[in-house]
Amino acid sequence: xxxxxxxxxxxxxxxxGTTDSLTTAKLIEHVGERYAAEDNExxxxxxxxxxxxxxxxxxxxxxxxxxxxxLGNVLRSKEGRIAKGYRLRKTGAAHGGVAIWRLFQI
Length: 106
Description:
Blueprint: H1 2-15, H2 24-31, E1 34-35, E2 46-47, H3 50-60, E3 61-62, E4 65-66, H4 68-78, E5 82-83, E6 86-93, E7 99-105
Antiparallel strand pairs: 1-2, 3-4, 5-6, 6-7
């Protein structure tokens, strides 16, 4: 479980950063962003944030689709835990009480 936390926080830091706060829906939208073949040095289309997408799919995916509720539960279970000098925290709530998440450096 610690390895999962490290993977999640590392990918969040590298691919999202520590300044953006996101709901689970926005996080799913973010990791689903794609780029065209001409925008990639390999010449192949793909995901802009492949590592984060893979980790989120591992936690909350079913047949390649990320479940928003499942992801929210995973983030709640990881909230406040520290790994490699970082922790995930809820920073508030969006319309309807949906949690907003952000990565913080300790």
